């Protein structure tokens, strides 16, 4: 995983996501999730492509229960884009690179 993708936890979510400058994409994932593994290399590419435009974070739902419950995460991967403290957009399931680009571009 790219060192530019920020690992967030229940404890760091508010600081890293809700209080961040600019938009933040959060990937709610788990190590056992096949579709999550499929989009991981795409996110690694996009974190470089969108550097300075959007922050990309990942949250392991197995190790963090409070935040996924607060946002009603029912399936993974779930991708959410936040601006300020507001949830702007959500996608559930594995997306292709072009779908991820469209999802991010629509939020910028």
Automatic annotation (TrEMBL):
Q: Name one Pfam family in it.
A: Thioredoxin
State the family named in the UniProt similarity comment for this chain.
Belongs to the thioredoxin family.
Q: Which PROSITE patterns match?
A: THIOREDOXIN_1 (PS00194), THIOREDOXIN_2 (PS51352)
Q: Which species?
A: Sessilibacter corallicola
Identify the stretch annotated as signal peptide in this record: none
Sequence ranges assigned to domain Thioredoxin in this UniProt record = 1-108
> Under what name is this protein listed?
Thioredoxin
| CDD domains per UniProt | TRX_family
Which keywords belong to this entry? Disulfide bond, Electron transport, Redox-active center, Transport
